[in-house]
Amino acid sequence: MPHRPASAASVSTPVLDRPSATPGHPRGGLSAVIMLWCLTRLWLVPTAAGVNPFTGHGRIDPSVDKVYRGWYEVLGNGSFPLHDVTWQYPPGAALPVLAPALVPGLDYGRAFIALTALCDILIFVMLLCVARVAGRGLAGAWFWTVGLAVLSTMPWNRFDLLVTGLAMAALVVASNQRAWSDRVFGVLVALGSMVKMWPVLLLIGTRKGRRTRRVWVAAALTTLAVTASFVLTMPNAFSFLSGQRSRGIQIESVGALPFHLARHLGWSGTWAAKDGSHEFVGPCVEGVSLIMQALTVLAFGWLLYWRRRSDLGHSHALPDAALTATLLFVVTSRVISPQYMVWLIGLAAVCLLRPDTTQRPVACLLLAACVLTTLDFPLLYRELRDDGAPLAIANLYARNLLLVAAAVLSGLRLWRATALRPVDRSFPG
């Protein structure tokens, strides 16, 4: 049956999330995406766990085997890492760091990889179930499968998979558009934000009025409850705030691009291991850092303006706005770590669950950026950091410009699809 476009009234009037009228996905497509997921994970997860499928030898990423294990030992004694500059996370981040203790029979590193692999499985199953129940295509599952695989073993060596899974689950639950789903959405967003701050950006696209109040109240109450539990049981829960204030320009960020060229033009600065990352130090760095912070404030201001001037009744508005907001945060941040791409891949996958999403071209740009991210880290990272090699710099420029283009395109497409026309603003509904 051919698909008939919805009338203007059906677009602007909130309705329950119903299965799409388009035909379901073919069984062959479902089998293909499951097979690809299995093949990529059977290679990448053992490799991340230090077991090469061919040689049987390998090593676990130092981020897990040294940094996370060090945090685990401190947190296990009942306190947050007060004097560790690498600890720059909200108190909820203690949970995924401590979680490997629940896995019997494995050392810390392999237990951590097993848990992140479980998160990947649950996310993939969720994407398949939504596609099946709602009668939608498999683009979201394909994108998640390929996007994570392109990032090599890195996603399984970071606890960002857990945070991304919470954010994705929140957006999927919110699509039910019922009172209970609003509250669950708020709870999941709050839990994710207590591990890493970025999921709070999902709140920007909540539908105005009663639904926003339900979501924000649920998120606020959950945040207060989790915060109180950590404050009462573990000292130094908010020590991470002082580390965030001293952040500089990390060498992979958009703000670092001028300094990579300046190193070859007589600039007297250099890089240093600082605040848990490799950052530029020297003339003009502090000024660029202030500019990046100002751009973050401007991006947030634009999001608030978009929210005021837009119709948030569109079913795609919430996930699309979540991707736009996170992209704007990433490109204006003083730090762009490789794991930030996991966030974007997850949010884009949820957007692609909807046939009416505005973000399909953005997802294509993100997939290309993932390829260049893997070339940058770990393949060309040492050449970029130590030598400023032309190939490494060119790769970083291409990756970051792709991210900037994706952020601009995402914002433009979101605005065009949701902005109220003058006649619409006369009847706010």
UniProtKB/TrEMBL annotation:
Gene Ontology CC, one term: plasma membrane
Protein keywords: Cell membrane, Membrane, Transferase, Transmembrane, Transmembrane helix
Chief localization: membrane
InterPro entries: GT87
Cellular compartment(s): Cell membrane
Residue intervals passing through the bilayer: 111-131, 138-156, 184-204, 216-238, 287-305, 362-381, 396-415
Record-level Gene Ontology MF annotations: hexosyltransferase activity
Region Disordered, annotated ranges: 1-25
Matches recorded under Pfam families: GT87 (PF09594)
Coiled coil: none
Membrane association type: Multi-pass membrane protein
Family stated for the protein in its record: Belongs to the glycosyltransferase 87 family.
Protein name: DUF2029 domain-containing protein
